[in-house]
Amino acid sequence: MFETISNKLQAVFKKLRGRGRLTEGNIKDALREVRLALLEADVNYKVVKIFLEKVEKRAIGEEVIGSLLPGQQMIKIVHEELVGLMGAGETEINMQKKPSTIMLVGLQGCGKTTVCAKLGYHFKERGKKSLLVPADTRRPAAREQLEVLGKEAGVPTYSNGSKKALDIVRDGVNEAERGGFDIVLIDTGGRLHIDNELMNELSEMKESIAPQEILLVVDAMTGQDAVREAEEFEGRLGIDGVVLTKLDGDARGGAAISVKAVTGKPIKFVGVGEKLNALEVFLPDRMASRLLGMGDVVSLVERMENLVAEEDRKKWEKKIAKETFSLEDLLSQFQITKRMGSMQELMEMLPGGRNLPAENLDSRFHKVEAIIRSMTVLERRNPDIIDGSRRRRIAVGSGTSVQEVNALLKQFNQMKKFMKNLKKRSVKGVFKWQLS
Fold first, then answer.
1. Which of 43, 82, 156, 397 has the greatest CB tally within 10 Å of its CB?
2. Which of 86, 108, 123 finishes a domain?
3. Same domain for 81 and 105?
């Protein structure tokens, strides 16, 4: 995520941290490099100009030059201004009315239908009852796609068979009221470009159902085109926020950094993968931290907490305390780690993690998983019984060598010794163990 801009910004601040004293001259030199990094990331040039003026004004004053740790203070200023640029604080969805109606709008191909199902899953995980309403009557199989995704998410989809989008939306909202739903999520139609027919249809829906939220879905990989779309929709329809999709791809970061400053509307959610749980509330402070290489440990922990049931965490804590944590438990944790994302993505959420060698960790995880799966249940629970012949059998079954099996067993024994120091700590500490 935003690898190029993040690497360049970190390189600039690495130079600054290496200086014992900062002057007006080398601060301006650093800001020129920051300017180039932002422009190359497709950040709106007006936004870049205003941002750098604010940073320079603060940096050249006593806040940095008079500081005992000028390099760190400079990073602090840039971090704070980035947060302000992207919209400080978490912007919540309007839930004052029941059911709360959320219209998803945007151009064709931006991912509205998938986002609709992801939002349904997101709210379901938070105890809210959602109804998906397929109002895209032009795109072939749009309704069927939403029904399939809704079924996968465990969220019902409404359909009355009407060919008129406005009728479907009205009836869907009425059905949600009768059914006691908390939220109605409306997947509207899109076009390849913004036209009067599209905007008139959306305006009619807005006037008819008075939604609590209109969220614009845009593709982060389109850069400033996404920002221009947001301006157009805000001017002609009025939106309450933005959902950025494909942030896990090759997005350069320009849209995420520019949208709030240009349109005045906050980014509310970001799509970080194809799976239904790969939707995150957009938190500017965490995004700024990741851009500057400061990591995002809080999000990492939250991902784990969302995937691990409380009873499982307590069970692991007891096993750690009693020193009965087994290879079977380790395998279970591997499954959770895989669901959290790729190792590269997880490493980037750790302070300085971008510089750690994560490219081979995914393959190492697969290899270790294969070794454990080639063991019997008894061997996983009691690895001490694994003698030479068992090791040879496990190596053949997992497609690895006896040396690799030996290495895993040695590492596991070392990890168990390490766990003795975690008896009074959270089970989260287990995830600090790394393969080598």
1. 43
2. 86
3. no
Range of the domain at 77: 3-86
pLDDT tens-digit profile of 117-164? 999 999 999 999 999 999 998 888 899 999 999 999 999 999 887 789
Q: How many CA atoms lie within 13 A of 87 on its CB side?
A: 22
Q: Is residue 293 part of a domain?
A: no
User: Does a structural domain hold residue 27?
Assistant: yes
Which tokens in the block code for residue 34? 């920051």
Q: Please check whether residue 295 lies inside any domain of the structure.
A: no
Do the bridges between strand 183-188 and strand 241-245 make them parallel or antiparallel, or are there none, so unpaired?
A: unpaired
Q: How far apart are the first and last CA of the chain?
A: 25
Pair (234, 352) in one structural domain: no
Number of H helices, E strands in the chain: 20, 7
Residue with tokens 């190596």: 395
Per-residue pLDDT reduced to its tens digit, 78-116 = 888 988 888 876 577 888 889 999 999 999 889 999 999
* Residue 273 within any structural domain of the chain: yes
The tally of CA atoms less than 13 A away on the side-chain side of residue 350 is: 15
Written as one string, the DSSP assignment of 288-325 is HHHHTT---HHHHHHHHHHHS-HHHHHHHHHHHHHT--
What is residue 124's three-state secondary structure?
helix
Amino acid at the residue 104: L
